[in-house]
Amino acid sequence: MKPADRERLIAATTSAHRERDPDGRAKAHPAWHDLDEAGRLGAFDETLRLRTLEAATDPEGLSTTARAVLARIRGR
Amino acid sequence: MIELDTFLVAIAAGDPDAFGRWVAGAERPLRESLRGFATRVDTEAVLQEALLRTWQVAPRVESDGRPNALLRMATRIARNLALDEARRYRATPLEDAPEPAHDPTPEAPDPMLRRHVLECRDGLPKQPARVLGARLASGGAEPDETLAERLGMQKNTFLQNLSRARKLLAACLEKRGITLGGLR
C-alpha cells in the first residue's frame, strides 16, 4: 500500500461517524477494512491523538466519540 | 487517578449529562483497553457500542468498594464486544484474545493542555482549521463526504487537510513540550 493511500484511509477511519447495521449496531468504517495491519494500528493511535485534542478543546471535555454516543442516547 | 463512580447514582437515574461527564473521563482508558484488538476490529465502532451498553446496564451496577466499578464493567463489555466482532470476522482464535494489562485508570483532565491546544488550533492555516472545525461541529453525526461537500472540497482534499491539521497541532504542541499521552 502506498503511504499516501494509507494516510488517507487512516484519516477517514478517525471519523467518529459510523453507519449502523439493521440491528442498530455501529458498523466498522469502510476505510478500516481496506487498511493493512500496520495501517489499523496507525488508525488506532491517530484516533487516540485526535480524540485527546477534541476533548481538550470541548467546553465539556467531550470528544466526537462521546458526542456521537450521547446523541444516540438522547435519540438525536 | 480519578473516581468516576461519583456520577453513578445520577447515571443510574437516567441523567445523560452525568453520563457525558463520566464518558469524558472514561473514554481514553476504555479506548486504550482495546489496543490489543486494533488490528482485528474497528475499535471506534466497538467503543461506541460499549458506551451505549454501559449506559443501558448502569442502573444495575453497584459499587463493590473498589474505585470505578462502572468503568471496570464498561471495560468488560468492550472486551466482549470486541471478541464477538473478531469472531464475526473470523480474525481471532479465542486463545489469542488479548487481556487488558491492568484495571483502567482514568486521569483528571489537564487544564493547561486545553489552553495550549486552543492556542495551537488558532494558529492553523485556513483550510486545515475549517476541516478540523467541521469534524468537531459534526460530533460524529455526519460522514466525511457530507462535511467535505459542505466545505466545497473533494473528500480526498478534506482528508489531506485533516491529516495536515493533526500534524501541525502535534508539532505546535511538541514545541511547547507536550506530547499527547506519549503519542507523537
Structural notes for this entry:
The complex is a heterodimer of chains A (76) and B (184). Chain A is mainly α. Chain A has one domain (3-14, 26-73). In chain A, 62% of the residues lie in helices and 0% in strands. Chain A has 4 helices and no strands. Chain A has helices spanning 3-13, 30-34, 37-57, 64-73. In chain A, α1 packs across α3. Chain B is built from 8 helices and no strands. Chain B has 2 domains: 4-96, RNA polymerase sigma factor, region 2, helix turn helix motif (Rna Polymerase Sigma Factor, Chain: A), CATH 1.10.1740.10; 111-175, Arc Repressor Mutant, subunit A (Orthogonal Bundle). In chain B, α5 (111-122) packs across α8 (155-175). Chain B has 184 residues and is an all-alpha fold. In chain B, 40% of the residues are buried. The mean pLDDT of chain B is 90. Chain B has helices spanning 8-12, 16-33, 43-57, 69-88, 111-122, 126-138, 144-150, 155-175. Chains A and B meet through α1, α3 and α4 of A and α2, α3, α5, α6 and α8 of B.
What would a concise description of this structure say?
The complex is a heterodimer of chains A (76) and B (184). Chain A has 76 residues and is mainly α.
Largest sheet of chain A: none
CATH architecture of the largest domain in chain B: Orthogonal Bundle
Helix content of chain B: 55-70%
Largest interface: A-B, 53 and 54 residues
Compressed to H and E, one letter per element, the order of chain A equals HHHH
Strand content of chain B: under 5%
Total strand count of chain B, please? 0
**Rg of chain A:** 14 Å
Report the average pLDDT across residues of chain A.
Answer: 94
Assembly category: heterodimer
The SSE string of chain B, one letter per element, is HHHHHHHH
| Name of the CATH superfamily of the largest domain in chain B | RNA polymerase sigma factor, region 2, helix turn helix motif
What's the structural domain tally of chain B? 2
Mean pLDDT of chain B: 90
